[in-house]
Design goal:
Length: 213
């Protein structure tokens, strides 16, 4: 079974965060930058982890239906499930500036993209903003990143402007996107409905959610 969990990063997670940053962005922050985010009371730095477990029955079934090798013996009791260690596959970060949540990072490991995991991480960031009673959220996104633009629009973000040649590596423009009303009670209801629908979609893709609110 494949599990997912979102939680705040801790100091021991920073080397994995730097590796994922390098893979997704080419290295925006070094480990010192991530450490500053952990230490800042105005920053929420979230990680998305996945891990797998495999029970004894599935291991036995994978051997096949033929006669097992002599060295394979059925135990008298079932051992605990085998677990693959958790892997950090997503990072999200926001800055709380006055009444605004500025989403400055949202990244999913390339091998796990297009499975709805970016939605899960964005939902968690918006919940953090709501819990802080921030009124609106803003972000910049490459105008060529159509998948990301579509994701933000799905969550109610609207284009509010453009920053010319914002990205130094390509000279691309950045779209500035806004989402208001985060502090309102109805936004909490919106988050609840979105989470239920998101969990259903992930479950259909054999992901199991393992986060406690």
């Amino acid at each position: 079974m494949r599990f997912l969990e979102i939680k705040h990063l801790a100091p021991e997670h920073l080397p994995s965060a730097v590796e994922l940053d390098q893979l997704c962005f080419g290295g925006i922050w070094a480990i010192e930058g991530y450490r500053r985010e952990l230490e800042s009371p105005n920053s929420d730095l979230l990680g998305l982890w996945t891990w797998e477990t495999e029970d004894y029955e599935s291991v036995q079934n994978s051997v096949g239906t033929g006669t097992p090798p002599l060295q394979v013996r059925a135990p008298t009791h079932h051992p605990p499930p085998l677990q693959i260690p958790p892997m950090l596959i997503g990072i999200g970060c926001l800055w709380a500036i006055l009444e605004e949540a500025h989403i400055i990072m949202l990244a999913i490991h390339p091998q796990f993209q297009r499975q709805g995991l970016g939605q899960a991480l964005l939902l968690a960031l918006l919940k953090s903003a709501h819990d802080r009673q921030l009124e609106r959220s803003t972000l910049e996104v490459r105008d060529s990143n159509l998948a990301a633009v579509s994701l933000y629009k799905k969550f109610g973000f609207k284009e509010a402007g453009r920053r010319k040649r914002y990205y130094e590596d390509t000279g691309e423009d950045a779209l500035v996107m806004w989402r208001s009303g985060l502090e309102k009670p109805e936004f909490q209801q919106y988050l609840t409905v979105e989470k239920v629908q998101m969990c259903d979609r992930l479950h259909q893709k054999k992901w199991h959610w393992a986060i406690d609110d």
